Amino acid sequence: MEKRVLIAFVLSTTILAIWYYFFAPPPPQPTTPERKPQPTARPEEKGTAPPEAPPPAPIERVPEREIRIETPLWTAIFTNRGAVARSWNIHHRPNGQLLLGADRRPLELIPQERDVVEKLGRPFALRSREAALDRELQQATYALSAEEAVLRIGKGETRTLTFTYEDPTRGLRVQKAFTFFGDRYDFHLSISAERQGRPLEVALVLGPNFGDQSIKRSDTYTKTPPIGILRAREKTVRVSAEKVPKEPPQGPIAWAGVEDNYFALVAIPKSPPASASFSTHERKETIEDEEITRRFIALSLPVSGPQEYTVFAGPKDPKVLEALDAQLGGVALEEVINYGFFSSIVKPLITWVLLPALQWVHRLTGNYGIGIIVVTLVLNLFFYPLRRSSTIRMRKASALQPKMRELQEKMKGLKKNDPRLQELQMEQLRLMKEANPLAGCLPLLLQLPIFWAMFILLTVSLDVRQAPFVAWIDDLSSPDRWHVLPILMCVSMIASTLLTPTPSNDPSQRVQRFMMAYVMPILLTYLFFWRAPSGLVLYWMFSNLVGIGQQLLINRVLGALPSPSQTEKETRKRPPVSAKS
User: Fold this and answer.
1) pTM (2 d.p.)
2) Domains of the chain
3) Poorest-confidence range of 159-163, 237-241, 419-423?
4) CB 571 within 8 A of CB 562
């Protein structure tokens, strides 16, 4: 019995093993056991784990998008990646004057080159010394307060655009709020940045550059190198992208920004920071088969805690800047316009004389070139009495030159203690006082401040920027591309020099007179006027032409100039100069 039971058990086990080997279903996939919430341990229970903190909420990714701000005066494009401005176009001045780029396309004021943006950032970016945080601030997509893609702000209207970025995992929160006005170039900007409830130390970027981006070259006249500008300790400091100081300027900083000849981006902080810093970048470009180096400069203002700014982004119009300066309580914002080293003389000449006169003629004729001609004519008529007096004195000096040489010959053989030397020297002083050849230079010296003021006006005034004259001269603030005006100006300089009397008719100085009459005008034209603004060359050329007419009239009234041989004959007829023994 037991044997049968054992045999039956073995057979059953064998059959079951064979069955499971061939016909058994596949094993089920392992599943993660469902976690059930554990009951909270009571304080009196012993041996229980402390409560776990709830996990941080995941960061909500904001899609990247752009928003376009349109006003009657300007248009800007902002991107929520970094909450920065990507494009800035200015359409008009307040007086309605159309503003275009040098290529006659819409005026773009912000650089678009990728390497420049990667190195220096975009306007209104926030930078940090912490590399990881800096990348995060640049790449983060901020939440926008506006849903529309285009934000239109009419005249008299005000709109606020807020960018917000939050990272709960790090307790990071950054916010920028822009308040724009429909009929103004300035706007308000407020910034707050904190981490774990504490102020985050960052820096606000202004730039890189701000000006007509269609102009690639920088030269002495039409396009200065990019400039960083700030007002600190009652002084205006300009820093060229070509030469940045090693030590950052110290404050308090009343305002700071970047500029070119005609446009500026300037931030006026409500709480002036203690310093500012500059960053630069260079890139090589090939223009018209010539390799050039373009330079870029950006300025950074430190931000520690909530900060508010008034930001100006527009043309350097004197009236606009003066009105904003008065609104801000007087921060010398008009210093944004660069009148040069002699601003104390040049600025009044431009503001009270030259620019009003040009504007008045422009209202009558519609042409600033004609305005330059009329102003030049009036100025030369004003200086005519001085020119006539100068010619008379130069004639006297020329007539007395042989006698002066005779005195010099007599003094050569005398000793210092010889009483005759003193007598001859007194005679020489009397002749010099009578002739006073230096007085003949007075008209030229008086014209130099006006010439310099006209040069500054043509390089900073928006009135003459892109103002046409005739035919091929379509911009008085740019060089004559055919160089016709510089050549005509050179010819007028030669003619004017030949007609102007000289203090000496010494035949031995013929080479010097040739150099002054021919070589010097050619050198001056090539070195200083070949690529000068057309308006400046027009002013100098027409001034020469009017001067030639005046000199011909003076020569006709006073008589022709004596030749060197005639002067020598007249000198021989005079009694010799003698000294008492």
Assistant:
1) 0.81
2) 66-338 (2.70.98.90), 365-573 (no CATH)
3) 419-423
4) no
